[in-house]
Amino acid sequence: MVNSDNLNLLLKVNGTQHTLQIDPRVTLLDALREKIGLTGTKKGCDRGQCGACTVLVDGRRINSCLTLAVMYQETEITTIEELAKGDELHPMQAAFIKHDGFQCGYCTPGQIMSAVGLLAEGCPSDDAEIKECMSGNICRCSAYPGIVAAIQEVRQMQPNL
Ligand code: FES
Ligand code: FES
Questions:
Q1: The pTM is what?
Q2: Is any atom of ligand 2 closer than 6 Å to the C-beta of 45?
């Protein structure tokens, strides 16, 4: 059924423009998962407390469950699906595997997007500060030591970060 309250919305996600007819109350997370079909971004708490829904907007981290899709026209949205290039993992993905930065994996897309954003934002480099910069991303499996080790490894690969 057509809802006359729907808006036409243009969202640029991972370099591709998507035209959506969308209820203005739809969150960015639901637009990504349910309208565009990018289910790599996870819904955990749906209220801004876990970070499972982290994506990058113009390179900065946001919780996509806490914000409306209509606010993101004219922006570049990046999700976990954009990181690997074919069979070649992004260095952060490879480092998470190498350092056991996950167990069940549910939080992992959000953790990885947050880690990529964190390095671009210039978070200070010691372990305590990295934990603070990642404090919005909760891992119920407590894979935190591996996550910090992965971030430190990628930082050392990219000394300008
Ligand atoms: Fe968005 Fe938990 S699902 S912060
Ligand atoms: Fe299971 Fe983080 S790996 S919640």
A1: 0.94
A2: no
